Amino acid sequence: MEPTFPSGCRLWANAWSYLVEAPARGDVVIVVSPEQPSRIEVKRVVGLPNEAVEWNGGRIWVEGLPLEEPYAWIRESPPGDEPCPKTRLGAKEYFVAGDNRLYSRDSRHFGPVPRSAVLARVDEPVGGLRKLMAGEAALTKLGENAGNASGATSS
């Protein structure tokens, strides 16, 4: 799920949330792998029940319109990456994808995920990783600005 969550990061998952509400587009979820049922995976919900979803040109299309995904690493598909034909999801099916699209095995490969395979919503990395990452980025930027303010140049 890079770049959203770095490899090896611990996540806080909320299994109770989907007892009272359905997964929503954009939710990061824990799902049972359709390819290896003994394994769980972290994916993002991009297609909802009864929608037509397809993958073409490196993008997810829902009901014929490209899905806006600021969180995903979207690049043109490499040679050999075949489009995923339009799939009409069932009443209890979801289309899930990893944020690093070129390297993710997801619904483009294994098809829709049944609602029963969606175990929990990911709420936040353990330890406030996003805050830590934001603080680190701010310190880096501060250091760059301080270097520039002192007249230092980079080669």
Structural commentary:
This protein has 155 residues and is an alpha+beta fold. The protein has a single domain, classed as Umud Fragment, subunit A (Ribbon). The strands form two sheets. A six-stranded antiparallel sheet has the order 1-10-2-3-8-9. The C terminus is likely disordered. The longest helix has 21 residues. It contains three helices and ten strands, in the order E-H-E-E-E-E-E-E-E-H-E-E-H. 19% of the residues lie in helices and 31% in strands. Strand 2 and strand 3 form a beta hairpin.
Task: Provide key terms for this protein.
155 residues; 6-stranded antiparallel β-sheet; 4-stranded antiparallel β-sheet; disordered C terminus
Structure summarized in a few sentences:
This protein is 19% helix and 31% strand.
Catalogue the unreliable spans. 128-155
Number of domains: 1
* Mean pLDDT, all residues: 77
Rg, nearest Å: 19 Å
What structural class do the secondary elements suggest?
A: alpha+beta
Please specify the SSE layout and strand pairing.
Layout: E1 11-14, H1 17-20, E2 28-32, E3 40-47, E4 52-56, E5 59-62, E6 65-66, E7 84-88, E8 93-97, H2 107-110, E9 113-114, E10 118-125, H3 129-149
Antiparallel strand pairs: 1-10, 2-3, 2-10, 3-8, 4-5, 4-7, 5-6, 8-9
